Known about the structure:
2 copies of one chain form a homodimer. Chain A has helices at 3-10, 14-21, 29-42, 48-55, 73-86, 100-112, 130-135, 159-172, 188-203, 220-232, 245-257, 291-306, and strands at residues 60-65, 90-95, 117-120, 140-143, 152-157, 178-182, 213-215, 239-242, 267-269, 286-289, 316-318, 320-323. The longest helix of chain A has 16 residues, at 188-203. In chain A, 43% of the residues lie in helices and 16% in strands. In chain A, the strands form 3 sheets. In chain A, strands 2-1-3-4-5-11 form a 6-stranded parallel β-sheet, sandwiched between helices. A 4-stranded parallel β-sheet of chain A has the order 7-6-8-9, sandwiched between helices. Chain A has a two-stranded antiparallel sheet with strand order 10-12. Chain A has 3 domains: 3-42, no CATH class; 60-157 and 291-318, 3-Layer(aba) Sandwich (Rossmann fold); 159-289, Response regulator (Rossmann fold, 3-Layer(aba) Sandwich). Chain A is an alpha/beta fold. Chain A contains 12 helices and 12 strands. Chain A binds a DNA duplex through residues 2-4, 12-19, 21-22, 26-28, 31, 46-47, 49-56.
Amino acid sequence: MNIKEVAKHAKVSTATVSRTINGSDKVSARTAERVRKAIKELNFYPNTHARTLVSGRSRMLGLIISDITNPFFPELVKHFEDQAVQKGLEVIIANTDYKPRRMAECIRRMVERKVDGTAIMTSEADPALLIELTRRNIPTVFMDTGKNSPLSANINIDYEQGIQEGLQHLFSLNHRKIAFISGPLNLQSAQRRLDAFVSGMKARGIKVENEMIEKGDHRIEGGVFAMRNLLRLAEPPTAVMTSNDMTAIGALGTIHDAGLQVPRDVSLIGFDDISFAHLTQPPLTTIRLSRSQLAITALAALERLMRGENEEDVDYTIPTHLVMRGSTRTL
Amino acid sequence: MNIKEVAKHAKVSTATVSRTINGSDKVSARTAERVRKAIKELNFYPNTHARTLVSGRSRMLGLIISDITNPFFPELVKHFEDQAVQKGLEVIIANTDYKPRRMAECIRRMVERKVDGTAIMTSEADPALLIELTRRNIPTVFMDTGKNSPLSANINIDYEQGIQEGLQHLFSLNHRKIAFISGPLNLQSAQRRLDAFVSGMKARGIKVENEMIEKGDHRIEGGVFAMRNLLRLAEPPTAVMTSNDMTAIGALGTIHDAGLQVPRDVSLIGFDDISFAHLTQPPLTTIRLSRSQLAITALAALERLMRGENEEDVDYTIPTHLVMRGSTRTL
DNA sequence: CTGTTAGCGCTTTCAT
DNA sequence: ATGAAAGCGCTAACAG
């Protein structure tokens, strides 16, 4: 089943069939109709690989993420894919599993499959990877890493805004002794959240003591462990901000296990607003980073890059905002 | 950058390069070495589309699921993909969004991209879809639907086992007044869980009254709504089983909101064991359906189908088992 | 508006 | 063991 058969069936040349498929206006309405009929009758689907081979464009996009089982990503994937499919683009997804080694492999897969563009939405991205992609002329969108260039765009996330809002909220609730459980500080994005916290506190005239900063790992376990340390302090914090919701969920469990209650004894603020954040007991006050906005922006940036539009001066920034729920309370 | 350049660089023909890439043993060790060196030096990656075009095999697999943001799926996707990538296969994922209409579109995408096989892991699968795939000679694996055939395999899920274990557990805890919140009963898989519950109760000498069966939708909201009805009853159940964990989470919230406690006032058992099931307060007792097992089995079945091995007599069954946690208690 | 034809990059006979 | 050459299914000049 191929274009030749369709051509025979519709009594035209393969070129005409091709033109009809691709919506060229150089086909008379009557001919086009006949071709479409033949296509339908023969149940013909064009072979995308042949198309790719000749056109040089695969209409496939790569989406590299850290780990699909991390609740941060599924929504991102979904929105990205929805948008892409609407535009007739296929998406191939690759997980790095947070391992830089696997990133190289992911890139190789993308190159082999000749994707028209790649969105690297991992937290551990390395700008050096750009080289391999740019060498192949593959437009690439990063998150929080690197700069715009003719072949790449960077989506910046405004962690500061959300963290300021969280701090503001906590201060208005009379909290002053506030701790922060960070993510892995080798991640630039985690470091930035911590920095935003520290400078926000300083701006409000409070010097953050070392013991008020715990290092987590962006997973439940890290939150559990860090919160235990915080609870053991002579003067434990009255409120805790965390680098992501998973950390907050771990902290929440620890607080409960210690016989204390959120928000009665400790106020708690997460980050990300993953879908389960409002299902905890109490529902988690958190800072939302909209994955749909991120996905949509990334795809839009990628499309511009693919069209060869100059991106260097465009600023892609995703805001973050406080979402008040039940895990914070006045002191 | 193509095979011709490599050939020129290594001073051999393109055929020899091709043979080397494909590990043919008809290449002398010395020549092969030279070719590999050229490949490395030129940073050459074979064009998969050209390969597909000539070989007819794309080394891509389709994975159709209902919705990646449904916590049931990410793990399934991950394991499936991990296995596939290890074997040099790419996976393209499609979400149906639970809409049969979109399923047709997903299938079209798979056919267009010439996948070597498809795993349809949606809860709402329709065996009629097999036609389109079989007509194209695309091996297909279903979940809980259809039969084995030379071009398709069915993975059966043993819902009954898990539900019996749940019931057994509840009975041993002296519960007799047990309600069930089902999923959408147009889904065969939901109906089977309900049936297993009813027949399990009957086998234990208890006739299930109508008011003890509520219909949910496999989402939080359905669980909330159904649990409200149950709580309003003159004689509410002392224990509730649900068709999936999302439903149980909704029910859990409703019970708490009503000023009651789990498991003190009501025991609760979920289904699936999604990753958040052990993060609820209390941790959810549930029936585990291993997504890794499901994914691995599906891929293995698909591979056999692709190799043309006769599958008709093979029985693929995934067990389900009770996981005891904190949401059940003796009456 | 339509047809003819030369490739796209690779694999695979068929020779040698 | 290696090379020459014929396609895989499609698109895009070019010709008419």
